[in-house]
Each structure stands twice: as structure tokens, then as C-alpha cells.
Amino acid sequence: MLKPVKVNSRKYRYYLEQQVLDYQMILLLTTLGVSLDEIRHYLKNKGRLTGLFNSKKSLIKKQIKQLEFNLDSLDKFLGNLKSNGTMVKPEVKSLQPFGVFYIEKIGPYAKIGNYCQELENIFNNKGQNFTTLAIFDNPTYQPRQSQIKVGALANKQMKVKQ
């Protein structure tokens, strides 16, 4: 990234004072997680560090939030594994009656998102508050081959395709 001003016969490289300062800045920026491409772009365009630091700061904050979310999720999953031997904590709740459009599927839990998308595609108009839910008909925990009813709470704006 930094080319010496001069290389003597003994292969000693000589740099200008500004290049030494650029080298120190490169070392500092790499410890802050700035990529060499970003540093190269900064040096080439003599950009402002303020913009670079602000973008890195927001990226790091985002990464911290994601890591905190992951840590909280791991704690919940560990707690569930200890209490019931599974990652999830199934709950049975009694609710007031409500209307539901649903499709029935047999498959893995991992495809629930795909099933919800399939259900969403049956509507010309799904309304503003499209809420989906998954109902498992299996009496036991079967994450790979489960009988699932994927539903959407009915609302007045919903229009089903022909």
C-alpha cells in the first residue's frame, strides 16, 4: 500500500515522514476493523476520517446488537434444553374464537417461512395486518416431519384468489 520513495543497493527502503504517519494510521485503522480496501480508498482519495469512523461506528453498533440478540437467544435455548430437552418451549394457550385461513403441510419446522409465503400467495388482498401462525397437529416433538397447519388470522380486507 505504501511504496518507498527510495530503495538503496542494500534493499533498505526509505519513506517520507507523511508515509510513516500513513503507516501508523493504517495500523490503527486495521485494529479498529477497517478493511485494507477501505484504507486504500481513504489514502487514494485523501478522504475524511470522520465519515469513515461514523460508518464503522454504526456498523459496530449493529454488530453488537446482533451479538446481544444471539447471546440472549442462546441463553433461552440453553434454558429450554435444560428444562424440557428441546430448544423451544411449547406452550398451550386458550384463546377467544377467531377466523383463520390455513393450509395443511407435512414437513420440517425449518420450512414454516416457505409455507407462510405459500399461504400469503393465495390472497389478492391480504389486508394491512397479515398475521400468520403455525399449529402443530403432532402429539410429540417432530421437527423434521411435522403435521402443520399454517394459518393467517382473517380480517375484513382479505380477498382470496379464485
Structure description:
It contains 4 helices and 7 strands; from the N terminus they run E-E-H-H-H-E-H-E-E-E-E. It has 2 domains: 6-83; 100-160. The mean pLDDT is 88. Strand 1 (6-7) and strand 2 form a beta hairpin. The radius of gyration is 28 Å and the shape is elongated. The N and C termini lie far apart (63 Å). The chain has a 3-stranded antiparallel beta sheet, with helices on one face. The protein has a two-stranded antiparallel ribbon with strand order 1-2. It has 162 residues and is an alpha+beta fold.
Which keywords apply here?
alpha+beta; two-stranded antiparallel ribbon; 19% strand; 2 domains; 3-stranded antiparallel sheet
In short:
With 162 residues, this protein is α+β, with helices and mostly antiparallel strands. The chain contains four helices and seven strands; from the N terminus they run E-E-H-H-H-E-H-E-E-E-E. The chain is 43% helix and 19% strand.
Q: How do the helices and strands line up, and which of them pair or pack?
A:
Layout lengths: L5 E2 L5 E2 L2 H15 L4 H10 L3 H36 L15 E8 L4 H9 L2 E3 L6 E5 L9 E8 L5 E2 L2
Antiparallel strand pairs: 1-2, 3-6, 4-7, 5-6
* Number of E-type strands: 7
Number of helices: 4
Main sheet overview: 3 strands, antiparallel
> DSSP strand (E) fraction?
15-25%
Summarize the helix and strand pattern as letters: EEHHHEHEEEE
Terminal Cα span: 63 Å
Which strand order do you get reading across the main beta sheet? 3-6-5
Label the structural class.
Answer: alpha+beta
